[in-house]
Amino acid sequence: xxAGKRTYFFDVKATRGNDLFMTITESKxxxxxxxxxxxxxxxxxxxxxxxxxxxLEGMHKAxxxxxxxxxxxxxRTGESNRIPG
Length: 85
Hints:
The protein has one helix at 52-69; strands at 2-3, 6-14, 20-29, 40-48. It is 21% helix and 35% strand. The protein is α+β, with helices and mostly antiparallel strands.
């Protein structure tokens, strides 16, 4: 998922015991030199199947809270944060 200066990757992987899990990686380009190789800063989350429901519930609660707060108390609306693509 491309998101402005960042890209998010969602990968499904398997453990040696054939349990499936997901990695979510945030990648951000940190080197902008035209002659040099691109350098990226990466952050990775490992999400295991036993945590899927709790993670998803927490994510939904956080997103709902953000939607409720947008446009209030000086917070920007969702549209005002969009980066032209």
